[in-house]
Amino acid sequence: MRSSGSRTCMPSRHAAAAPLVPVKPRRAAVQAKCILIPNQPDVGGRRELERRSALALSCTERSPVSAAEQLLGGGAFSQASFSSPKRLRVAVDVDEVLGRFVYALNKFCKEEYGMDYDVSDYWVYEFAKIWHCSQDQSNHIVHEFFESDHFNDGIPIIPGAFETLARLQGSCDLVVVTSRQHVIQDLTLEWLDRHYAGLFAEVYFGNHFALQGASRKKSDICKTIDAHVLIDDNVGYAMDCADAGINVLLYDWEDSYPWSKLPEGFSHPRIQVVRNWQEVEAAVLAMAAVEAVPQ
Fold first, then answer.
1. Which is the catalytic residue, given 95, 186, 233, 240?
2. How far is residue 38's CA from residue 71's CA, in Å, rounded to a whole number?
3. Residue of 42, 93, 243, 252 marked catalytic
4. Residue 9 buriedness (CB in 10 A; 0-12 / 13-18 / 19+)
């Protein structure tokens, strides 16, 4: 690791206890239930993805079939759903699966704080432990990062992700399930619009490590929206979802994510390690083929 154990992540100019001011979203957060409105013409200039996004906090434990019946007014939907092959519902994480969040964060930290870290230094995806500081200090730095150009324009996409998802879209329903905070919902949607336009029907936020608001576990979100599989890089989230009966593709990009390593000797029938988007595609198509077989 490039940093010494004695260095703190907050320089002297930030040493005094400062109020933690949350980032102000550019637009009001979208408040929606987990089953969202059908496709409609654009209203009020809001983009399709933005209108169809959802806060995970507002999701309720509801049957997708019964919820759709309520929206569409009748039982015809439920009858049709049982007469056609079931599509695999795939939940996709954002950071380190679609985009290189830590890579951009490290550039910000070096520029603003003189902290010199590499992705290979992150043996756990808990920044306070890597930066040798308190959780409050870590949260403060990350929220400063949210206000920077490094976050707004500097997060590169993961190679192969867009092309693979574009192919999978024909046989799967794609949604985003991210632990990102509600306060950066609009910025996240804008980033997805730039790099993954037209691929995701819904976006859900877990609001983890936030300065304000409650958080929600990814396993709860995935169960609420009836996701069959989650693509995620976090071992903790993977274990939690697998224990909840959700299949997980644990994404360890080219074996370069230290935090994505399972404990030695550990295995779970619902967790499969994948190292690139080619492996993701093969695994998802295999699951989709099984799901499409009439029961």
1. 95
2. 9
3. 93
4. buried
Question: Radius of gyration (Cα) for the chain, nearest Å?
Answer: 20
* Spatial separation of the C-alpha atoms in residues 274 and 162, rounded to whole Å: 16
220 and 249 belong to one structural domain: yes
Domain range for residue 147?
Answer: 100-152
Number of domains the chain contains: 2
- Pair (64, 187) in one structural domain: yes
Residues whose CB is less than 8 angstroms from the CB of residue 222 and which lie 6 or more positions away in sequence, other chains included: 91, 177, 230, 241, 244, 246
pLDDT at 207: 83
Q: Is residue 41 part of a domain?
A: no
- Residue 255 annotated in active site: no
Residues 218 and 274 in one domain: yes
Helix, strand and coil percent figures for the chain, each rounded to 5: 40, 10, 45
Q: Examine the residue annotation and report whether 93 is marked as an active-site residue of this protein.
A: yes
Spell out the alpha helix ranges (H) of the chain.
48-51, 64-72, 76-83, 101-113, 127-131, 135-146, 149-152, 161-168, 185-195, 218-224, 235-243, 277-292
Spatial CA neighbour of 247 closest among 269, 229, 226: 229
Q: Which residues of the chain have pLDDT under 70?
A: 1-85, 209-211, 292-295
Does this model's pTM top 0.85? My answer is no
Q: Over the chain, what is the mean pLDDT? A: 79
Domain presence at residue 199: yes
Q: pLDDT at position 17, please?
A: 37
Same domain, 268 and 250: yes
Residue 84: the pLDDT is 55
Helix (H) or strand (E) holding 204: strand 202-205
